[in-house]
């Protein structure tokens, strides 16, 4: 999961997406930084995108490990048999919280920044689930599924207030992530069928002798 979400983060930003650490007491202050000819509601400014993402992630992690900590643990515990659902709900809640905080400042978060932040938040919630023994460290698909569930829930609750351009950009980003997942799975399948050919070749060689 970490690999695929990292690929998605690189696809959105064009670079690496390191995980910032939460700083208690710091609230996100996002300056859109419109590019020439770009729309700050939709386009992520390469010169400010990483800084925006870091501030959004810090706000998410501060809430997750602060006032939401008990709620997060309870939710993960209550649906141990459906961890994707719990991860999705928690990440969507974090996304909606930060989006509202930024809206209260009269600003907005470019979709690329929000998607990157949600990826990192999903990893953080996934790590919490791992420490609680709900999923194994190798169970990346569950965390990835939780992230995709969060994006769906966020879209359902926030799309009514989005500009059409924002909705289109979110859809484009999610489509790209799904295509990356399908491509990743496609490159892993053919290798499992290759060992059958040497045995057939040996039988053919034995028949000629």
Give the proportion of residues in helices.
Answer: 55-70%
Mean pLDDT: 78
Gyration radius over CA: 21 Å
**Main sheet overview:** none
Work out the helix count. 8
What assembly state would you assign to the polypeptide chains in this entry?
Answer: single chain
Gap between N and C termini? 50 Å
Based on Cα principal axes, name the global outline: globular
- Going by helix content, strand content and strand pairing, the class is mainly alpha
Extract low-pLDDT stretches. 11-37, 192-196, 198-202
Order of helices and strands: HHHHHHHH
User: How many DSSP-defined strands?
Assistant: 0
How much of the residues is beta strand, in percent? Answer: under 5%
Would you give an account of this structure?
It is a single chain. This protein is mainly α. The chain is 66% helix and 0% strand. The protein has 8 helices and no strands. The protein has helices at 2-13, 49-64, 69-78, 83-104, 111-131, 140-158, 164-188, 196-208. α1 runs antiparallel to α5, α1 crosses α7 and α2 (49-64) packs across α4 (83-104). The longest helix has 25 residues, at 164-188.
Task: Kindly summarize this structure in a few lines.
By secondary structure, the protein is mainly alpha-helical. It has helices at residues 2-13, 49-64, 69-78, 83-104, 111-131, 140-158, 164-188, 196-208.
What does the secondary structure layout of this molecule look like, with pairings?
Elements: H1 2-13, H2 49-64, H3 69-78, H4 83-104, H5 111-131, H6 140-158, H7 164-188, H8 196-208
Helix pairs in contact: 1-5, 1-7, 2-4, 2-5, 4-5, 4-6, 5-6
